[in-house]
Fold this protein.
Amino acid sequence: MALEIRPSQALRLWRQVHLDLVHDGQADLSARQTAILLTIYLELPPHTVRGLAQQLGVTKPVITRALDTMGKLGLVTRRRDEFDRRNVVIQRTVAGALAVERLADLVVQRARDLGPG
Amino acid sequence: MALEIRPSQALRLWRQVHLDLVHDGQADLSARQTAILLTIYLELPPHTVRGLAQQLGVTKPVITRALDTMGKLGLVTRRRDEFDRRNVVIQRTVAGALAVERLADLVVQRARDLGPG
DNA sequence: CGATAATGATACGGACCCGTAACGATCGGG
DNA sequence: CCCGATCGTTACGGGTCCGTATCATTATCG
């Protein structure tokens, strides 16, 4: 069930999708931000700042700042955990889900457009 | 010859590769920089600032700054065009080629690791 | 209670990036 | 030969990000 892809195909796919992201005027997310966003939307909740920092291997302020930025963009929301008020639970949004879905479709479409080799 | 991939697979692939990039302490390139780098290494030379700006749909200073950064990282080099000294020719480097190759292998490997669904 | 630990947010100095606008260098046509 | 067009770069003001260190808030445990 493994997905077979050749190195040259992988590079052309990577390039084309990034070109599309730049072209579409989407938010120019860094690799870190992309990893954070997709982790929130693919892994099981709840998500906390500390948990994300551990998974990414970065410091907590990195997560806090990324959440600030994505919050402004409407991609995620934060809410205080009522059972342990030290924690903050990161929540998904409709806009964020749509953005993730759009990325998925983009990758699928560009993969389909790939020629052999 | 199209590459078949499902949306959920695309997202998991995208997330895992970005996680790897962050983890490996690679340069945290933005989407724009990634598009520029891969364009230089996949499209036929010669590459100029103006040409890259057109392909990316961004302004020239964006390209200049990206080349500054990637130059410091050793991923690309610039050389004056001797036949039209207004032009600058962007050249590949061994380090850049290795980085691109590493990215390709990373995508291929993570695609192979994908389960069904 | 009070002390300790843990969480997320904030301050700081330094670096990078953005778009607009201006710049010097170079080419090319009249 | 000169003047306009074109090239890449730089200056500017504003924004974001980094890592380290510190902070206030909250929980836990003696």
